[in-house]
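Annex B, item 7. Sequence and structure tokens for protein A, then protein B.
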Amino acid sequence: MRLVVLRDEDLELSTPTTEDVPAIFAACQDPDIARYTTLPFPYTAEHADDFVAEAVPQTWAQEHGAIWAIRRDGEFAGVIGLHPRAPRISEIGYWMVPAFRGQGLLTRAVGLAVDHAFAAGVHRLDWRATVGNWASWKVVWRHGFRLEGVKRGAMADNTRPGEPLRDGWFGGMLASDPRTPAGDWLGPDGALPSRPDPARPMDLVRQFHQTYEVPIVTTGADVDVPNLGMRMALIAEEFAELVGAVFGDAAEGVVLQGYGDALAFDDEKRDTVAAADALADLVYVAYGMALETGVPLVDVLAEVQRSNLSKLDTDGRVLRRADGKVLKGPGFRAPDIARVLRERTIT
């Protein structure tokens, strides 16, 4: 494939040059780029030099291979490439400079790259991303890619060496496929027809963890985890909120103060068996209170899930507090619990 420049109004895709090395190096200091791509982390100036001097020409030298810099009005905004995997099959990959995310530029760039690939004789384009990377999926979904499966433990996180490999989404499209979405948007800001059954709370929470990349441990039970403090604080906060709803704000404050005082007595002895028993009892008594008070908890959980999955930033990024708690993005929609209680009765 010969070197090609693609244009769309103020957007240009052209081959990265040595002049782009400082911008590439600066952009790749963003941990999200290393987390969601195969780029090394930490990313050094030497990595940027090697990318322009070696990876770019080597990729262009392959049939159906290409690497472009994404430029808006001449300013470097990201990278997009076509990486040959087999005869007439290439994989599309991309990343954006943080300052240019959420402006629709990547969607336009992918459209240019896809048009060019199929016009050049590519039969199929592959795509992959870590499960929960909704921002990456939405870009290709708009152009007709189909999500074709999940591979367990197929994706590395370069910012967390030694961590278990994460599950990956894999998809693609054929040159003959329509260039429009192949199905409904199933992401956090859509209708969510794929929402798990709210009568199975663990499935709801698992979807939340997958969407926001919250750890899911499958190697055995152990409560001594890095986010233990945050988890305990969340439970204390929700219990205090319940106390406040029933007994008043002053009572809520007492509970929160009591939890804060309890932390001073942490002996750092973690009893996983006792913790598991207490977690089960918390769920049991919560459902018991719902039954005794007539709260349709299944329907309330469905409404809370709808709200929880609206926390992503406008470009699909996850916002986190320093301790790892997922924060609300600008599109967050609070749950309408009052409506649920008006419309539903317990069954």
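Protein B:
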Amino acid sequence: MDINIYDFDKTIVPFDSGSLFCAYCLLHYPYLILLLPVAIPVLLTALLLMVLHIISFTDFKKLCFTFILFIPLDKAVNKFWDKYESRVHKWFFDREGYSVIISASPDFLLEEIQRRLGFEKLICTRHNRKTGIIIGKNCRDEEKVKRLYKEFDKNSINVVNVYSDSIKHDRAIFSLGKNCYHIVNGEMIPFKFDEVYAK
């Protein structure tokens, strides 16, 4: 089966959906401000530990969405996409073939936009919908390929096109595609994998 792989943040949309959702919730559920005196020191400490390689990025990210404990999550997600769905890049609506979106963003946030846009497969970071804590590993870098092959038998798929804004972080999925497209400010820039990632 031929498939096309897309990153999501800053690829299909021009923003980081997880970060924007955090800001959206802080604006629309202002009582979350009461959590900041506790949350900020905890997050800064975790950030420092991550920079010092004492904890992983996944461990740090586990703390970032714990605020969903205190909001009506489904309502917040729906209202968020009501506001930001229009910013999906127009070229994505003209896509052809079987589309697989592989993203580090949370499943509780992207499942709704999958329903609205109608793409075939979503692979993303899994979270406990009650606590916000990550289940398993953060879906980024090489983990994207591991997760892809958990969903599809390696020999059953042929990756035709790969689209991502991140040359740095998405080498693993770019290596799978016959055609690679770097997304810059919403524009598709084709490139040859061997030329960009020359040893």
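Comment on protein B: Helices lie at 17-28, 36-51, 57-61, 73-84, 107-117, 142-151, 171-174, 193-196.
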